[in-house]
Amino acid sequence: MLCAVGILAGLLSAYLYSSPKHPLPPAFNPAANPYEKGIYANGIIESYQTHGENINIYPEVSGPITQILVSEGDTVHQGDPLLAIDDSIQRATVQQQKSQAEAALALLQELKAQPRRETLQVSEAQVMLARANLKTAEDQLDKQKKSYELEPKSVSKDTMDNAINAVEVAKANLQVLEKQLELTKAGAWKYDIQNQEKQYNALSKAYMASSALLAKYTIRAPVDGVVLAIKAAVGSYISPQGAYGTYTGDLNPIVVMGGTQTYLEVRCYIDEILIHRLPQGAAMRAKMSIRGTNVIIPLEYVRAQPYVSPKIELSSQRTERVDVRVLPLIFRFKKPDNVNLYPGQLVDVYLAEK
Description:
The protein is an alpha+beta fold. The protein has helices at about 1-20, 90-115, 115-150, 155-185, 190-215; strands at about 40-45, 55, 65-70, 75, 80-85, 220, 225-230, 235-240, 245, 250, 255-260, 265-270, 285-290, 295-305, 310, 320-335, 345-354.
């Protein structure tokens, strides 16, 4: 009985394992070249730009991030603030230079406002006093002379000399005070005013330069577009070289922006051995196949970048290179509503002549 059971089990197993297995249907049909003599190329989706690729934003100053004012995917307009960098030191510098410029302006206005009315009144009063002293000395000298004429022995030579000297001193003192009055009326020396004007201009420009630098601590959108990526967090230290990448170990742009999402562009790389087969731009037609789907989108030719360069592997544009040269071509297409497409996505591109 055991032998019979074993034989039956063996026959059943042989029948089950020998029956053919039907493969599962593919999730999607691999894209085929839609053109009889089409050229194949790898492509990468980018935001549509008249020049360049995506918009990489780097700060012009260094410091830790204090605020991030937008989120990835937000639509922004030119001049909108994106993030803020700690500006406490620069703000204090601006306030200091502003105070210095204001002090220089106040001194310049003081020089231009001279003579001061109160100072002029003091100088005029001193001249009047000097004239009165001169009149007193002259009267005293006249008395001594008359006394000497009546009786020469009534006035000593020393007394006469002192009276004469007193008149001369009073005259000299009056002349000094009159010159001082003229100097007061003339106001500030023009060279002092010119020097103070230059001081004020220099301090004002330093204040304006510091204020302009202070504005750099707020990074703003350079154009209208969409925020594609933010490569740093609040508290991260950033510099004009970018932000340190935790996983890649290199420096990345702080913010990556794209143009408006009505149109996207595809940058594809044509192998140098196929360049001679490329049709002229107006005669070129192209289609794009979305990997993992059966979606095929027609492309509109935009331009060729007329510079053949070493091919850069799209998986790592910074480090990986192969000994092949390629010609970049740029196409654009209107973003479809029923397909999720994003800049940075790899696609297959087929080109042919119309």
